[in-house]
Automatic annotation (TrEMBL):
Keywords carried by this UniProt record: Cell outer membrane, Coiled coil, Membrane, Transmembrane, Transmembrane beta strand
Protein name in UniProt: TolC family protein
One function term, GO molecular function aspect: efflux transmembrane transporter activity
Classification via SUPFAM superfamilies: Outer membrane efflux proteins (OEP)
One GO cellular component, as annotated: efflux pump complex
Ranges in coiled-coil conformation: 103-200, 235-262
Organism: Candidatus Caldatribacterium californiense
Keyword Lipid biosynthesis: no
Organism taxonomic ancestry: Bacteria, Pseudomonadati, Atribacterota, Atribacteria, Atribacterales
Family annotation (InterPro entries): TolC-like (IPR051906)
Length: 448
């Protein structure tokens, strides 16, 4: 009884020391959800894309302001009659244009910048998820290799004891030592690789890597949700490359409309109103969709009529340019070439989407297979444990069985990470956003 009491006290003391040391050197924890939030706030590429959006908005505001451009002109006329000036005039003229083609290019640029910002955010989120998965996989692999190192160390020490007793050959001892040293190097390289992956991960967050150890929390073991409401063809129009070409097509169509108006008669409705020397003239051009307003007040007295006067007129003009037909032809040819590029890009995008979809299905099947292998390995290890309890196998055989079970567990966890990585690659190819409820749906909400 006293022996068990001492053993219990020793175990409690050991556990207390472990908990204390773990609390002292645990470092910081980070989850995938927290990492995504921090990346949206601190990533440098996102901040740069936000600046580009502000630049595009400023350019659009400038284009719209230029369509209302008041011009104030002071015109002085001096006529000598004797020794005094006889007339001065003041003219105020405003031009208001409603030509939508003046805005279209800047509007498309703003839309492109806004899409680029959203695409950058999604790309950063997908890179964060991928980097997080790589770190988890590397940590799993490192744990597996460290366990293998323990087994090789146990085997090497047993052979060394046997060699000292004359029960083991020298070549067997050298072989065991070589395997042990090789495994040591593999573990060391994996630790350095893990450090590099963590540095790249925190770069995505726009942060410096902490000096203390970081614990990456495990992911919820739930299959991602994939809806079949949209077909693969529907995803093609969502790609940025296709949307950019569609925006260029709209610009060319606006240029076509502008050139067509140049070849039409210019019809302007003019109206005048004057009273007590003030003269107001307004003209609206139907073809250019512009309004010109002029207000004039002579400062002198000569030629100023009293009373109220109204006037309405319709002016028709037509101009011909020999190069107009060539300009139309160039725009039409550019549009045809753009449509060919658009069809080619759609075909390439569809091929990429189908390829990622097939990889996603393959990863899904791999995970199912690894889960079945894990269950079989658990049953096999349970049989080995019974043999160990009966004393029919040695400790090395038990350690090998534990290693095999651990390998199956790591393979299953890495297959789940590969599935998520394939799912993220599919989302990237279809320009779909990263949503937490899509990656890790609630229980019963998994769709395949």
């Amino acid at each position: 009884m006293e022996r068990y009491r001492e053993l219990l006290l020793s175990v409690l003391l050991f556990v207390g020391i472990c908990l204390f040391s773990g609390a002292q050197g645990r470092g910081q924890d980070i989850s995938l959800r927290e990492a995504l939030e921090r990346a949206l706030l601190g990533n440098r590429e996102i901040r740069k894309a936000e600046i580009e959006v502000e630049i595009a908005r400023s350019a659009l505001r400038k284009a719209r302001e230029n369509t209302f451009s008041p011009a104030m002109t002071f015109e002085e006329t001096v006529r000598l009659s004797g020794e005094s000036p006889e007339g001065f005039s003041l003219e105020l003229q405003d031009t208001i244009s409603f030509d939508a083609s003046l805005w279209e290019e800047e509007k498309v640029s703003l839309e492109r910048a806004e899409r680029a910002l959203e695409a950058t955010k999604e790309e950063v989120k997908k890179n964060v998820v991928t980097s997080y998965l790589e770190i988890l996989k590397t940590k799993n692999t490192l744990a597996l290799e460290e366990k293998s190192l323990e087994l090789l160390k146990e085997r090497f020490e047993r052979l060394r004891e046997g060699y000292e007793k004359g029960e083991a050959a020298a070549f067997a001892l050298q072989e065991a030592e070589g395997q042990y040293r090789e495994q040591e190097g593999k573990v060391r390289v994996l630790k350095e690789k893990l450090r590099l992956l963590e540095e790249r991960f925190f770069q995505l967050l726009g942060e410096e890597i902490p000096g203390e150890e970081v614990t990456f929390q495990p992911l919820p073991q739930r299959l991602p949700a994939f809806s079949r409401d949209l077909t693969l063809q529907d995803f093609v129009a969502m790609r940025d490359e296709v949307e950019d070409l569609e925006g260029q097509r709209r610009v060319l169509e606006a240029q076509e409309a502008q050139l067509r108006r140049k070849g039409l008669p210019q019809i302007t409705l003019e109206g005048t109103y004057s009273k007590d020397g003030w003269s107001l003239t307004a003209g609206y051009s139907f073809s250019a969709k512009s309004l010109d307003i002029a207000l004039e007040k002579p400062l002198g007295t000569q030629g100023v009529s009293s009373g109220e006067h109204f006037g309405v007129g319709l002016a028709v003009s037509w101009s011909f340019s020999p190069s107009l037909s060539e300009e139309k032809k160039q725009v039409e040819l550019r549009k045809k070439a753009l449509l060919l590029d658009l069809e080619t890009e759609k075909a390439n995008v569809l091929f990429d989407i189908r390829e990622k979809y097939l990889s996603l299905g393959e990863a899904w099947n791999t995970l199912e297979g690894k889960r079945m292998l894990l269950e079989a390995e658990r049953e096999r290890h349970a049989q080995v444990m019974k043999q160990w309890e009966l004393g029919s196998i040695d400790q090395v055989t038990l350690l090998e069985s534990e290693l095999s079970l651990f390998q199956a567990q790591v393979a299953c966890e890495n297959a789940f990470c590969d599935l998520l990585a394939s799912f993220v690659a599919f989302l990237r190819s279809t320009e779909q956003p990263i949503l937490w409820e899509t990656l890790f749906p609630q229980e019963g909400d998994e769709r395949t």
